[in-house]
Amino acid sequence: MEIAAFQQLMRDLYLENDKRRGNTATALWLVEEVGELAEAIRRDDRENIREELADCFAWIGALANLYGIDLEEAFKEKYPQSCPTCGRNPCICTD
């Protein structure tokens, strides 16, 4: 699935719910999912890590839709085939 198709799916499925919930509450849901991902990583539970990564990705799509941001376009601008910090591919940053 392409990023645009993923974002459209999230829009079709959840945009009305996300609008009712609002930007701040939707962002807080993302933060909660990131916390669940961190816990799965701490436990080294690969299946749960997989699930939580998908949840985080979905909430990122929800936020992008609420703010009218095209994720694919934003990603390509920020990461134009190279690291935005050192400008290299692969990245040679030390941190």
TrEMBL record:
The keyword Hydrolase applies. The keyword Hydrolase applies. SUPFAM superfamilies: all-alpha NTP pyrophosphatases. Residues 23-86 form the NTP pyrophosphohydrolase MazG-like domain. GO terms for molecular function: hydrolase activity. CDD domains: NTP-PPase_SsMazG. Keywords: Hydrolase. This is MazG nucleotide pyrophosphohydrolase. It comes from Methanohalophilus mahii (strain ATCC 35705 / DSM 5219 / SLP).
